[in-house]
Amino acid sequence: xxxxxxxxxxxxxxxxxxxxxxxxxxxxxxxxxxxxxxxxxxxxxxxxxxxxxxxxxxxxxxxxxxxxxxxxxxxxxxxxxxxxxxxxxxxxxxxxxxxxxxxxxxxxxxxxxxxxxxxxxxxxxxxxxxxxxxxxxxx
Length: 139
Known about the structure:
Layout: H1 23-45, H2 51-56, H3 59-78, H4 102-128
Helix pairs in contact: 1-3
């Protein structure tokens, strides 16, 4: 990350990323903030980064992706347990003691599909970065 040129100063609060500045300085630094955001996204998405696709994203989706990239970078820089394994979550409805109804089973299946899709997206994102935790089988 530092070798890639991403060494942001660690703010006191993650959401308080900028110190108070004058409006003129904010206007001139807006372009540099865009460049920083693209650097974060280039690092986060790896070889799947496409500037045209990022520009085509709606602003809220792009902002959410930048936040995810910053959170991951911050966790990798400052996290004490960044290589520790996360305890596996229980499947949806596992701790329910009674028999589920048809609607509850369908909700549990839908939630399981959503969780599985999120895991696959995270693994794909890791596989697209150089030196990531996951790689494709054909590599």
